[in-house]
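Why show two proteins at once? Because comparison is the fastest way to build intuition. When a single record is shown, students tend to memorize it. When two are placed side by side, the eye starts asking what differs. So, the first record is below.
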Amino acid sequence: MTLNQLAYFCAVCRYHSITRAANELYVSQPTISVAIRNLENEFHIRLFNHGKNQLALTPEGEAFYKKADHLLHYSQDLYSEFSLTARGNESIRLGIPPILSTVFFPEIMLAFQEKTRIPLQLFEYGSVRACKMVESEELDLAIANLDFYNVDKFHYQVMKTDSHVYCVSKTNALAKKDSITFEMLADQPSILFNTDSVQNRTIMSRFHAAEITPNIIMYSSQISTARKYILEDIAGAFFYSSVPLACDDIIKIPIEPEITSRIGIIWKKGVYVRDSVNRFIEFAKTYQL
């Protein structure tokens, strides 16, 4: 078995056609046919049923495809990681919620790369999902809201503490309030960030504690979308106070009682941490926001 044979087989699975797979891979049809036949002979299985106009995977073929596809992806990741390492350019995989990316990036990325020349790969995920991906080692690090129940499973460094605010259009009836309570928001149409956000869970727990069912009209990960709804006075939205909204027509109202969250960087316990990742952690500890 070779990786080329697996690549040819997986291409046929995707296109349901040896002809199309050959065209996409720039090889001859006999090359692909021989590769599949060799796999079937090696493992003593039949991978495809041959129909009139297309190929269909057998049950054994379906199971083989899942393993082959995983192996190809793993080999590609292995090549990418270690070819970069050989050039001294291994990138750091960093997750960050969209709502926080406007606070931290691109400034922190540019400052770190100017100092170290180490590339960063950014992945926008809510804090809940980003932390799970750090745990499964799909990400090296995450900048996240640290107020989740099992944060002690990770190493972490607090970078800042931020308060939550409720944002409305300056034409909204609530805009003149000095502060706002959850009782005052019972009927107010509101936007929350996606359900993989720690901020979402924090806000919803406060509504539940007050025995209020909020009028949530949208769950979104896009700040620009929330801004449009606020400016049209369709809804208000919960943000961190440091999130730049860049608009004089949007009013940030403090929430009473105050809700604060710790924002910081997390990484997995009990695993080897590469030098490049350690350098980012040390940089983040001293970075002035």
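Second record. Ask yourself what differs from the first in the token line.
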Amino acid sequence: MTVIHVFPGQGAHRVGMGKELFASYPHLVRQADAVLGYSIDELCLRGPESRLSDTRYTQCAMYTVGALAYIDRIRTTGELPDYVAGHSLGEYVALFAAGAFDFVTGVELVAKRAALMADVGPGAMAAVLGITADQVRAVLARDGGPQVDIANLNAPEQTVVSGPPEDIAAAVSLLKAETRGAVVPLKVSGAFHAWPMAPAAKEFERFLAGYRFAPLRIPVVSNATARLYEDAEIEALLVRQLTSPVRWTESVGFLLDQPEPEFHELGPGQVLTGLISEIRAKRPVPAGMAS
């Protein structure tokens, strides 16, 4: 059996998350508060929803809850995972779990990342359901099409596009008119994992130059490459992640190829568990196994 821990990102957050964890690890909560300058447990437990949904705060909250959930899982079970992976912001929890940096350093990195992404300005994202990423690309690649990027490859028939608000609005109209897919605008304020994040990525690269990362003790699957991190490329891949799509379908495919994979989602909700089930169900049947 291969034990795999996965960590969700923005979108899985909710007011009330982390209640039991904050009570169990007050010393770590105080450390996060000292870095952030506000009470992380008050934010998570009381909101308001509007503030918790602001990416400046969402990312810090999701990292803290995810990291505490991992610590609690290891403390409770005594069992380390064989692999870890996170979706978008969740990748920072995966890297913390793998020993790339300590808890407080993770808070510092995520707080800076969140601030830089928020400072980029307005953006939008939309999920396209029921058609493949190639079909989405074919529609959007036409001359004069909207200036949007593929941001998340979440499942074989779930793709997220990202870009300036006016371009996403045009993409939504185009995709609704010319495909059978359902198109759902997402409740975000930024064009994450897309070309508008290039200025944030450049500034984040300068920021990361002040840090040194420890060798990974557990294999981590990268969002940007859908393969395992090498110790020497942590900084580069964290920068690249800001403007690159989250290749979740391929990442999960790699993990499903491991012997008897057993997934555990740590953090609020079961969003990733649902995506993993969808990816598993739509995988091609290996040759010789079809009835």
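One difference worth noting in the second protein: The first strand starts at residue 2 and ends at 7.
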